[in-house]
Amino acid sequence: MEIISKSYLSLSKIGSTALGALHGLWADQKRKDGRKSFGIVMCPSHVTQKWVREIGETLPDKVNNIRGMALESQEEFDAALGDGSKADTVRKAFIKLRGELTHLYQMQCSLRTAAQSDSETALVDDLLADLEKISRKAHEQTHFTYTTLEEIAALN
Fold it and tell me: What is the spatial distance between Cα 50 and Cα 131, in angstroms, rounded to a whole number?
């Protein structure tokens, strides 16, 4: 991938986002075939410092957005469960919630891979705990055997 711009300001966000996406892709490939990958970024040194700052500023926002999406999905599931007039409706709501949580889990994994400090890792790990809590509660409410999001994601 090559990103060229005369303005380092516009490249800063584009570059840090692209690098984060590539890092997540490489991590996914590493899990599949065991090979390592690397990338080279050529830029002025002050840009890399800016990237570290911007990534740190946006990670909490990304975590909160994912958590918000999970809570919305849980509310939709709870509404369908409260309706409960048909077992089929509850089953479909559970399948939908499980799919949404699996997608959010994969997003969380990408953030975990991109975390650059212990505090960022802890923030992302707390997100995983919240996602698992929602998943566990839904499994209990529907009387399905609890399966971790990592295991569900591996099946997809």
Answer: 31
- Burial grade of 14 (CB within 10 A; 0-12, 13-18, 19 or more): exposed
Residues 13-64: pLDDT tens digits?
A: 556 566 666 666 555 555 566 665 566 667 777 777 777 776 666 788 899 9
Taking the CA atoms of residue 147, residue 151, residue 152 and residue 155 in that order, the dihedral angle to the nearest 10 degrees is -140
User: 């399948």: which residue's tokens?
Assistant: 95
pTM for this predicted structure: 0.65
CA atoms lying within 13 Å on the CB side of residue 79: 7
Which is nearest to 29 in space by CA: 18, 17, 19, 38? 38
